[in-house]
Specification:
Residues 39-161 form the CMP/dCMP-type deaminase domain. Keywords: Chloroplast, Glycosidase, Hydrolase, Multifunctional enzyme, NADP, Oxidoreductase, Plastid, Transit peptide. The strands form 4 sheets. A 9-stranded mixed sheet has the order 10-9-8-7-11-6-12-14-13. A 5-stranded mixed sheet has the order 2-1-3-4-5. A two-stranded parallel sheet has the order 15-18. α4 packs parallel to α5 (121-129), α15 runs parallel beside α17 and α18 (522-540) packs across α20 (577-603). The protein has helices spanning 2-6, 19-27, 32-53, 90-98, 121-129, 148-155, 170-182, 184-191, 222-233, 242-248, 297-305, 318-327, 339-347, 417-423, 470-476, 485-496, 500-513, 522-540, 542-549, 577-603, and strands spanning 66-70, 76-81, 106-111, 133-138, 159-162, 196-204, 237-241, 263-267, 287-292, 309-313, 332-335, 353-359, 387-394, 397-403, 434-437, 455-458, 464-467, 555-558. The chain folds into 3 domains: 2-182, Cytidine Deaminase, domain 2, CATH 3.40.140; 189-374 and 384-403, Dihydrofolate Reductase, subunit A (3-Layer(aba) Sandwich), CATH 3.40.430.10; 417-595, Orthogonal Bundle (Tetracycline Repressor, domain 2). It has 604 residues and is α/β, with parallel strands linked by helices. The protein contains 20 helices and 18 strands.
Length: 604
């Protein structure tokens, strides 16, 4: 069943209620004559949330969007979901599926469309198809996108209802909650500076996560472990502590035969870690070790030689680590750590949800570890209560899940940087003349080479070839011209990748596995490759050119905390070559514009 699997990391039992149950619940609060349309709206919105969840984890991070088109008689005419940014919008796919049935029909969206800068394909598809009414589950979580699509659709004459605003009832609120759950990571990013974090553990009936000896394989059943693989595949990263690496030597892979592989994060204050470990094998997924500044420099060099990234912190604690990975663009993190680190993460307030697999086993042991270490609580009145608790049997095990803190409500408007600065100038993170950009959903996100804007570049046959984004073009050209069938195959795979994230994953993975396939002159030509692609992008899209020119007078900084070549780095130590190239192009475009203006004056 889709819901029991797809929405498992975020959903509560509310997502498993049927439409008839919805109708019954609503009838207890209002008249039966009004119940049918409300129950129908709620049911279709919940279906849109189901569809949206199908893309979770495949090319993360991106919003999860689904669309259902229903005819006036209440039958489904078309459905669609967004696979990744840069692919066809859910609304476009649903319209294509529904065809002529779109006329006078209603479109149900789990979330307001939030297109990359200048792309209004979702709204245009609904308008041009003749959709009469649109029901939106929630407005877009990011403030610079919130309300834009709703206003655009209304300006074209569509009736637009937003759950909780135009339609109110208990059943409507429950459907709206489904929409919040399916995009919980994006909402948490909009409301806080930490990713949406899930703590997962497996324990025996007497609360042990291992025997007194430390042996822990296997507490839960094979079915439960399969669910854990799904959880990993839906997450941007998986976190463990040093004890887990030493004791279990995990791989932390999703093992689902393709798609997204999460980044593996090891938190270790002293770097007392083995020289050989499965996590140092970078062929399947990347690993980042976070540690205290100055810890075991020689071991850091050893990890670097294996391709493992090491990030140092002045004081290693879960809050600072999660804020750092928030800045790297991570939306969702799965914690599979031991009790000591779990307790620290809970105390730091970074854990949003708990997944506990309880196996019908008793192992005992006075010194056997428990899933959560010391929290400093001495009375049961201090215990942390879970919210929206859900129970599910998985094979012989019982899965108990619930939230430690509620998903932030979208009703309050999250202040922009400018509004926050007006209230308190001391809290602004930016200098007035610096414009930061990183992820495509940011205000200036279209400056990113991940923005889904296709470009046409010259090919070897004296013609032109279309690339779905600058990132597609850049990653592929690491292997262009290499006389090896595998390199040529890699170029083809990158070119066919459905999204920029997928193209980057293929290119970076192959670079790690087979560095010998990278063209020998890559280090000397990569800046020129990026420059040519960026120049094409900002030349063929007038709205992007205008946006770039509007930044005149400001320093452009790609706010990647980990890329010290293309980005500005964590503490401004990066070379910021992407920002430099954009400023160079801006200067060139401004010069051309001024020259054109002077020429016009002379002609007149």
């Amino acid at each position: 069943m889709v819901l029991s699997l797809g929405l498992a990391p975020y959903a509560s039992t509310i997502l498993c209620k049927s439409a008839s149950h919805d109708s019954a619940a609503f009838n207890s609060n209002t008249s039966s004559s009004a119940a049918i349309p409300h129950a129908q709206d709620a049911g279709f919105i919940r279906r849109a949330a189901e569809l949206a969840d199908l893309s979770a984890g495949f090319t993360s991070p991106h919003p999860n969007s689904g669309c259902v088109i229903a005819t006036p008689s209440g039958s489904v005419a078309g459905e669609g979901f967004l696979y990744a940014q840069g692919t066809k919008a859910a609304e476009v796919l649903a319209v294509e599926a529904a065809g002529l049935c779109c006329r006078r029909s209603t479109a149900y969206l789990n979330m307001e469309p939030g297109d990359c800068h200048g792309d209004h394909a979702a709204v245009s598809a609904l308008v041009e198809a003749g959709i009469e009414r649109v029901v939106v589950g929630i407005r877009h979580p990011l403030q610079h996108l919130r309300g834009n699509a709703v206003r655009a659709m209304r300006s074209h004459g569509l009736q637009v209802d937003v759950l909780g605003e135009d339609l109110k009832s208990k059943i409507i609120e429950e459907a709206r909650k489904c929409c919040l759950l399916v995009n919980a990571p994006l909402i948490c990013r909009a409301a806080s500076r930490v990713p949406f974090s899930v703590l997962k553990y497996a324990m025996t009936l007497d609360g042990k996560i291992a025997a007194s000896s430390g042996h822990a394989a296997w507490i839960s059943s094979k079915k439960s472990r399969s669910r854990v693989f799904e959880l990993r595949g839906r997450s941007d990263a998986v976190v463990v502590g040093g004890n887990t690496v030493r004791r279990d030597n995990p791989r932390l892979t999703a093992r689902h035969g393709g798609g997204h592989m999460p980044t593996r994060i090891v938190m270790s204050q002293t770097l007392d870690l083995p020289e050989e470990a499965n996590l140092w094998d970078m062929s399947e997924a990347s690993t980042i070790v976070v540690t205290q500044r100055g810890a075991r420099r020689s071991f850091q060099k050893l990890l670097a030689s294996k391709g493992v990234e090491v990030v140092e912190f002045d004081m290693l604690n879960p809050r600072d680590v999660m804020e750092y990975f928030h800045d790297r663009g991570h939306l969702s993190v799965l914690w599979e750590c031991g009790g000591t680190l779990a307790a620290s993460a809970i105390q730091s307030g970074v854990i949003h949800k708990v997944f506990a697999f309880v196996a019908p086993k008793i192992i005992g042991g006075k010194h056997a570890p428990s899933p959560v270490g010391e929290l400093g609580m001495v009375e049961m009145s201090q215990a942390l209560d879970l919210i929206d608790v859900c129970y599910e049997q998985v094979g012989p095990d019982m899965l108990i899940s619930g939230f430690l803190q509620p998903i932030p409500d979208l009703t309050p408007v999250i202040p922009s940087v400018e509004e926050t600065y007006a209230i308190d100038p001391n809290v602004t993170p930016y200098e007035p003349k610096i414009i930061f950009f990183f992820k495509t959903w940011d205000l200036y996100g279209a400056l990113s080479n991940f923005s889904p804007h296709p470009i046409q570049m010259p090919d070897d046959n004296d013609g032109y070839s279309t690339w779905l984004s600058v990132e597609h073009y850049y990653q592929a050209h690491k292997f262009v011209g290499v006389d090896d069938p595998l390199a040529q195959e890699c170029v083809a795979k990158i070119k066919a990748a459905k999204s920029p994230e997928e193209a980057a994953r293929i290119g970076r993975s192959m670079q790690r596995k087979r560095p010998d396939l990278i063209r020998s002159d890559w280090e000397s030509v990569k800046i020129d490759v990026m420059y040519r692609a960026l120049k094409c992008k900002f030349s063929i899209y007038p709205h992007l050119n205008s946006m770039l020119l509007s930044t005149a007078g400001s320093v452009l900084v790609e706010a990647s905390p980990h890329d010290l070549f293309w980005g500005g780095g964590r503490d401004g130590e990066g070379l910021n070559y992407l920002g430099r190239l954009l400023m160079q192009l801006r200067s060139e475009f401004l010069g051309e514009s001024q020259a054109s203006s002077q020429s016009s004056i002379i002609t007149v």
